[in-house]
Amino acid sequence: MNTPFKEEERRRLLDDYFRDQERSEELDYEIATTQGEATETVIQELDALRASLSEARDQYRLNVPVLPLSRCPITQQVTYHSIDPYGLDGLWWDNQVPIRPVEVLPSTFIMVLGALKLGPSVENTPFPVRPGPEAPYVVPEVLGHPDIYAVVSTVKVGTHTAYPVFYYGIGWEGKVEPMNNWGANHWSYMDRNGDLRYHEYGAVPVTDDSFLEGLDGDEGEEEDEGYTVDYDLRRWVEEGKLLWIEPGDQTMTLREGASGCPYLDLPGGRVFSLILDGERHDDIDEED
Amino acid sequence: MANKNMNDQELEMKEYLVPKSAVQPLLTSFSMVRNRLGEVFDLPQGDAGQATGWWQGQKPDDQVALRQALTALASPVIMSDITIMRGDQGLVQTTLVKESLRADDPAFLVDTDESGENLRLRRLQSPEVMAGTILMYLEAGVEPGLAEFKFEVSPSEFLVLLATLDLYRRSYLISLLEHEEMKPNLKLEDVQNSVNDGLQYPDPRWLVPFVVPILPSKPELDWNAIWQAVYSLSQRGIVKLSEDNTSLVLTEAGALLATEMLRKMAQIRVASLGYTEDGKPASQTSFFVRGENLIWYIDVGAESVVVAAVDLDKAGELINELFKPVGAPPTVQPARAAAPAQAAAPRPAAQATPAVRYCPSCGQPATWIEQYQRWYCYGCQKYLEP
């Protein structure tokens, strides 16, 4: 966790990274298709590229901004979470291998989901990006629990407008299964005891999964909770379950009630997006 | 002489040194949201380049903890100034800073290192760790006794009582040095001198100077006020005035207090500043003394001071209460912020910021203390003129 990079520093880092990655893939292909043993020169070049790519990922992880994105209504703490606000071509947005620092979040953190309203053009990304649908939504099966709250806010990502939705609660372990964090293929953060929590929604947990104890389907075969999405935020806002932060409010003040809430009935697609190679597709599996 | 810092034997936890000049630039660089309570820290603006250089020199694991500490400094929900005087030797001063309203969430201890250039930060798993440390001082290795003892006095009576107890202790020490029997009579003139000494010399080994910093305002007691206070204490059965009204003796109750204070093992003051649920500043100040046999709890209010003997469990309860935040302070609007205009102002979940006053001495924002209905400058440690 280092000081955040500036836009031009990030651009240089990513340009170099993608160039090296492309070259590395070429060499991989060359080695795979060469009859007999590959030349020592090619292997050395590939090793050097891999080292350089690894270093670039570390550098990216160290410098990706950690920004105030939300506020917990229970602890009143501002929630600082990493995000690449310069565009979807940042490695933070790589759904399969998201490059993110260890997140230090309020003790009440459950998960962060999100939506992203696409701007006029879509970045050309060599990796799949899953930023959610274009309009913010909530998961009724999670937010319906009496001690769980969500907060929706706004952050610009390049030319796009993103809507992170953080879920907070106390004593939620064993009651809800956390979904993969926004844009990522897993859920993880560092809890208040300094332990790294990790879970893959839709996969067999690989580390401490005690927070899942008590959930239906925890015994025997892993079975994910059947979650749905609800784009009608008015009901949740009026019930005080979904709080909101005014777009551009740098004080991250929590607001309640439907009056003046800019997140109700937002335009934009209600289908989850999958972005790859500069094109947007419907991400039907993710939505299901 | 007194050692002003906690040492590792007292609190075994990792310590982080942060240059004071790096804090403000880092808060800005990390886009950290600040609140009114965070403004209490008097930190220089500093150089952004130097701050970044310092930050980049830290280990990644340390950066995680340091970042938590910085967010706590930027937006605390409670700050408790804690001063512990162990016997007459070790003085410990630190500030507990907590960012979360959740009672058992982590907190940080913040103080300044010997050079004065660095903040020293230590992460506590929860404020209960600090409460446990204070209890350890109050237990002092010997199980305290129990006594039914409670009375309420005005702040000026309280101060005169402390000055009397200080005078009693002084007389005792002099009698030892002079190989004389201690005289039970204490002259009112000497009580007045004891008050003045206590207000003039900030020697924390004596009760008056130890308590003065947590009083709502610096007392100015003239002869009449001291006389009035002594008279009231006599009416409460703590002292007995001589017939010519020139001296006093301690009653049985007063003598118990004096003996306890004479052989006190530790004295602890805690001044907590936070906000109420409806977003108003509030403070609570308490003073604990571990006497020879008893634990004394003194709740210092604006209008009255309650003195009571408590057991260890009750002391623990009271200490934990001092570290419990109730409400969140208003957030400070960043200077560069340009929030879009609102057509219809929505209902904020947090309370609106009260009008701001600045300290005429140091120029820092002052804090409105609802309890005392006065503005207080934490930088100068004084109340502003109304």
Task: Give the arrangement of secondary structure elements.
The complex is a heterodimer of chains A (288) and B (386).
Chain A: H1 7-33, H2 40-63, E1 66-71, E2 78-82, E3 109-117, E4 129-132, H3 140-143, E5 148-152, E6 155-157, E7 160-169, E8 187-190, E9 196-199, H4 233-238, E10 242-245, E11 254-256, E12 273-276, E13 279-282, H5 284-287
Chain B: E1 15-19, H1 20-29, H2 48-56, H3 60-74, E2 78-86, E3 90-98, E4 107-112, E5 118-124, H4 127-139, E6 150-153, H5 155-177, E7 186-187, H6 188-200, H7 207-211, H8 223-235, E8 239-241, E9 247-250, H9 252-262, E10 266-275, E11 281-290, E12 295-300, E13 305-310, H10 312-322, E14 347-348, E15 367-369, E16 374-377, E17 382-383
Antiparallel strand pairs in B: 1-5, 2-3, 2-10, 3-4, 4-5, 6-13, 7-9, 8-9, 10-11, 11-12, 12-13, 15-16, 16-17
Helix pairs in contact in B: 1-2, 4-10, 5-6, 5-8, 5-9
Domains of chain A (count): 2
In angstroms, what separates the terminal alpha carbons of chain B?
A: 39 Å
Whole-angstrom Rg of chain A:
20 Å
In N-to-C order, the SSE pattern of chain B is EHHHEEEEHEHEHHHEEHEEEEHEEEE
